[in-house]
Design goal:
With 275 residues, this protein is of the alpha/beta class.
Length: 275
């Protein structure tokens, strides 16, 4: 039976986005090659890597190997800083802010191609314009700056200049970018890794950092609901079961992948129905 034409959307969610690897592995096993991929933040990173020809198996092995040694990871993060400790005293910058393009060089299995047109699968990535307060979609031109912009988490990663725009994390405007799929497809598989509501009823007030991430989670969940609601006829939304993980839980990579294995059966069912 002929394979359906699939558009694949890889959502924003930090470390929870490692669940995307399970979906990519399943599509590979089913010999389904997406017609187009769209991604935001971690979805843009993994989408770009996969579209460049890096297999899902390689991505899994790389992630599990890379996040086994916290000291080595922190060394690479430290090397990617754009500020200095003295900036803190001078009030001139954030000493822990990192450069997104340097992170891509240090944390992907191999360098990304120079341009979108060099990819094996068409790709669109979403970023947010910090000053114009709007959504920007990149699908042509230089690849690395666009992916870097899409992953530029405010206060952690330096905003990216592209042309006359100052850009930050695409999850701020479009965490599940189904509208970025413009190819003629039979259906869109949208992998949602936004965080669900807390299961406890604690009244404890979280710290400043956790509060910021929870607010970002709340915003992304609401935006994802709105985006899918406008495209229900052709979108199959997969909610990854990664509620218990935080956006920066990359050292829990093995647990995140294990928790996401159930996505494989869901993808298989979607493809079987679409044939």
């Amino acid at each position: 039976m002929s394979a359906p034409r699939i558009g694949l959307v890889l959502g924003s969610g930090g470390a929870r986005g490692l669940a995307h690897i399970v979906v990519l592995e399943t599509l590979e096993r089913l010999k389904i090659r997406p017609v187009e991929i769209a991604g935001a933040s971690i979805g843009a990173i993994l989408g770009a890597a996969y579209a460049s020809g890096i297999s899902a198996k390689t991505l899994r092995a790389h992630v599990l190997r890379d996040y086994k040694n916290p000291t080595e990871v922190m060394t690479r993060l430290f090397a990617a800083r754009v500020g200095k400790i003295t900036d803190l005293w001078r009030g001139t910058g954030n000493p822990v802010l990192v450069d997104a393009e340097m992170l891509l060089d240090r944390f992907l299995p191999k360098p990304l191609p120079e341009h979108f047109q060099d990819l094996e699968i068409p790709l669109s990535v979403v970023a947010a314009d910090l000053h114009r307060l709007d959504r920007v979609v990149f699908s042509s031109g230089p690849l690395k700056p666009a992916v870097a912009a899409s992953m530029a988490i405010p206060a952690l990663v330096k905003p990216v200049h592209i042309g006359a725009r100052v850009l930050v994390d695409g999850g701020a405007v479009d965490p599940l970018p189904v509208r970025a799929i413009i190819a003629d497809v039979d259906l869109i598989i949208a992998v949602d890794v936004s965080r669900a509501a807390a299961r406890d009823e604690s009244v404890k007030i979280p710290g400043a950092v956790e509060t910021g991430f929870r607010v970002f989670d709340l915003m992304q969940a609401a935006l994802a609901d709105a985006q899918v609601g406008e495209n229900t006829n052709r979108v199959r939304r997969l909610k990854a079961p990664v509620e218990g993980f935080h956006a920066l839980d990359f050292f829990s990579a093995k647990k995140i992948l294990a928790a996401s294995e159930g996505l494989s059966g869901v993808v298989e069912s979607i493809i079987a129905q679409a044939r």
